[in-house]
Amino acid sequence: MPAVPVQRLLALLFRGIAVAGLAAPASAQTTLPPTELSYILSATITSDYVANGISQSGGNPSFQPFFELDWRGFYGGVAVSYVRLNRDRTEFDVYVGHRRRLANDLFFDLSYRRFWLNASGDCCGEAKARVIFPIGKTVGAELLLAYNDTIDSLNQRGRVLWDLSDRWNITAALGETSFNDNQYWNVGATYTLRNRLALSMRYEGAETGDPGLVVSLGWSNVTNDIARLLVNPFQ
After folding, report:
1. For residues 89-98, b (16+ Cβ closer than 10 Å) or e, as one string?
2. Per-residue pLDDT at 114 exceeds 70
3. Which region is the signal sequence (predicted)?
4. CB of 215 closer than 8 Å to CB of 200
5. Domains of the chain by start residue, with CATH
6. How far apart are CA 79 and CA 92, in angstroms?
7. Which of 104, 106, 149, 234 is the most exposed place for a label (fewest CB within 10 A)?
């Protein structure tokens, strides 16, 4: 099957109809108004919750559901994840943001995310800016800056996304966090088992030590795997 152009996926995503458009039949994707309220519902089981090259679940499996509402590119959501951080076992996240398409198929995503832990309470906040742009019909690139004011840490990351076909995509990322001067990277592939179910394998590496191979099984009402990756708050 031919790959879907990245430009088309991103255009739908950032028009504020991420779910209504991507989950609908192709004939309906061009008729949905961009002002329509839509939602994203997703749940993932992963062998290890890794963030910026560091395991947040101590190498243990983690369950990660999230729910998001989107209107005219403005969005807000809640996410939950199992962690193993000292006494804490559950992470609760609340986030808000805005996605917008600019000229030449350039897109930006600005957001703020607040983290709470079940034992420690209010942990920290993270302001995030992402720029996403196509570099070919089936290849896209992402540049990310995220700042955590609690620990005065800047996270810089570049990522390439290659949509091989209707079912396969490959991603590779390289980043660095200033708090611990830790460089990290990952490379992986995702296979769509069904429209709403996908299996991914990703190798996570970092200067502080490689978390290793991470296997995840995820369900989402966003049916395209690239779009699903871009809206995932854990990514």
Report:
1. eebebebebe
2. yes
3. 1-28
4. yes
5. 6-231 (2.40.160.40)
6. 6
7. 104
